Amino acid sequence: MHQRACVFPCGPYGKPMANTVRSMASKPLYTSNQMYNFDDCFAHRNIGYNSPHIASYVQENTRILDVGCSTGAITLSLAKHNPSGYVLGIDHEPGAISLAKQHAKEEGITNVEFRVANAEDMDDIQDESFDIVHAHQVLLHVTYPITVLKEMRRVAKTGGIVATRDNCHVFRHPEHPLLEQHVNKFIARSLARGAHPVGSHLNHEWVNEAGFPWEYIEMGAGSWDWSSPENKRNWTSGVLAGGLGPIEGIDRAALEKEVEEWVKNPRTRIIALDSWVIGHKN
């Protein structure tokens, strides 16, 4: 049986709170141009690198739901890994779903479907309809993570799994002051709309509170290194595109030039730590 290890005080993450905004609301958070930048940032993602904790659960004819699929990189990887099965990717951003559909068509992947949907209320998905319900870097961005996990549990089949992986920290060396301002602005913006940018420390507790007994919960961690020039460029483009808006007194062109110099510096490095949790539905 897994022991509880709460790092931060727990709150009513599954209940509506006053003065917060639903993070999965119908109004898109990002413009089409920003989604294209995120697409570049996310394009490298795949099951082997980002979701290896669920790979062994993918069997013949597996039905997989990818919650918060963004532009579909992991979803399409799951579909390739699961050729005899079916994969559905959902996201509340219409621009992301449009790009995901485009990628599926370009790659000729036919066992995948993408829909615009709200992870906090998946009312168009039947109970007990998927073997694997997966989310990657999603709970950090939602207002009510327990509500999302309860919905994920509802649509998972008995004997199936609910899996989440969330970022704990991104180590950057050497730090770039202007880039750090953008990261801090993203965190502040997330908190202002009721999201949980440090929620990875609590995802195991959220899974438990969503209805999974401790004896049916697995936990682990994974890391990734984005230290090649291409990966550093993709990561910084995602940071700068994150709907953050300009920083007062900072010229955008000058910022992009400075960041590109940081990317090209062989001393710079980006390393990240994620935590993952699997809940077994029995």
TrEMBL record:
<protein>
    <submittedName>
        <fullName>Putative methyltransferase</fullName>
    </submittedName>
</protein>
<dbReference type="InterPro" id="IPR053173">
    <property type="entry name" value="SAM-binding_MTase"/>
</dbReference>
<keyword id="KW-0489">Methyltransferase</keyword>
<dbReference type="GO" id="GO:0032259">
    <property type="term" value="P:methylation"/>
</dbReference>
<keyword id="KW-0808">Transferase</keyword>
<dbReference type="InterPro" id="IPR025714">
    <property type="entry name" value="Methyltranfer_dom"/>
</dbReference>
<dbReference type="Pfam" id="PF13847">
    <property type="entry name" value="Methyltransf_31"/>
</dbReference>
<feature type="domain" description="Methyltransferase">
    <location>
        <begin position="60"/>
        <end position="174"/>
    </location>
</feature>
<dbReference type="GO" id="GO:0008168">
    <property type="term" value="F:methyltransferase activity"/>
</dbReference>
